[in-house]
Every structure is written in structure tokens, then in C-alpha cells.
Hints:
The structure holds two protein chains of two kinds.
Chain A: E1 3-5, E2 10-14, E3 19-26, E4 32-38, E5 45-50, E6 57-59, E7 62-67, E8 72-77, E9 86-94, E10 99-102, E11 106-111
Parallel strand pairs in A: 2-11
Antiparallel strand pairs in A: 1-3, 3-8, 4-5, 4-9, 6-7, 7-8, 9-10, 9-11
Chain B: E1 4-7, E2 10-13, E3 19-25, E4 31-38, E5 42-49, E6 56-57, E7 65-68, E8 73-78, E9 87-96, E10 99-102, E11 106-110
Parallel strand pairs in B: 2-11
Antiparallel strand pairs in B: 1-3, 3-8, 4-5, 4-9, 5-6, 7-8, 9-10, 9-11
Amino acid sequence: GDSVTQKQGQVTLSEDDFLFINCTYSTTTYPTLFWYVQYPGQGPQLLLKVTTANNKGISRGFEATYDKGTTSFHLQKASVQESDSAVYFCALGDSGYNKLTFGKGTVLLVSP
Amino acid sequence: EAAVTQSPRNKVTVTGGNVTLSCRQTNSHNYMYWYRQDTGHGLRLIHYSYGAGNLQIGDVPDGYKATRTTQEDFFLLLELASPSQTSLYFCASSARVGEQYFGPGTRLTVL
């Protein structure tokens, strides 16, 4: 079945630092990949969707890309702010059953 | 106005107790989902549904039942709660693959 691996459990940065979070995936179908963000005390919310290799999803200053050759996908932001502190999940979509397989999440802590 | 609501927001029960978690969505979405979130495990799918009366098994269904009574309402039932079911539970709805809208969560503690 589908699987997603998100190894970075926690990332600690200072404001204006560069953010890079990586996930790898395994699927037998054409992948549709997502990034969700969860702010403290809230449910996750969709941040970005990437449907085609080498295409980028961009939202709120975040950029997502994926590499079909290495079956990996990335979330990056050029300059993080304290308000970006949250948990970031990568997810792989299953179009046949309309469900998602989530990674374990990366806690981002940004200090001012 | 919140489109996915959950109740209760917090629940404490004892081992062997019965618990029902409720979810309502006003998005007019066909799909609804129940997840649990645990440190070190991320979000794991328990059950989901694509319409009233339909139920699909998720990835971690053991110990859980679910029922979709209407397009709006999806319930998660724990008939013999165990401490291992202590968790943060989220409900979500969706109309398109991957674009899910989550509720605020229910924190369940089983003593």
C-alpha cells in the first residue's frame, strides 16, 4: 500500500532562516502530494497541493515541489517568521478511495 | 462560521466505558473521515465514509465503530474503551481527493 516517510521530527530555526522539510513516498499509482499545517490548538489545514513532477505549489510564501526520480517531495520557505511555528504534515493522496496517507509530522519552532 | 464541528471537545472515561464522538459538517461534502493523532505517529485514519449509510475501514480500525447517519453527521463509537485509545481525535470532510477540512478535535482520556 501507499506509504509516506517524514523523518524530521523537529526543526528549530530563527526568524528569517530558510526552511526545508523533506518527505519520501511509495505508491503504485500516479502521486498527488499535499502539505498540511497544524497550528497549536487547531485541526490541520491544507497548505499546498502538488500534482505534477517539477511543478510547484505556492501558498503563503511556502513552496512545494516533488521529484519523481527520487520519490521525494519538499516544502520550503525562504524566510520563516515566528508565526510559522506549527506542525507540518506531508500527505499522499489515493484517488481511488479519496483518502490520504499522512507522514508523522515535523514540528517547526521559530524563535524571534 | 466553522464548517466542521466536533463534540465533545474533551472527554474523560474509564476503561471499559462507552464513548461516542460526534462530528457535523456543513460543507455539503460527500466524504467524511475520523483520524487519531498521537505523538510519534502523526495522523492515522480510523474509518471514513462517502455518504449516509456507507462505512469504509481505515488503517487503524480495531476497537472502533463508526456510523454515518446523514450527509452531515458522522459518529465514532468506542464500546469498550481502553487506555491505548487515549488520543486526540479529528474529524474531516472532503469533496475532492486530498483537500480535507478538519474539525477542532476531541481530546479523549481513558483512565
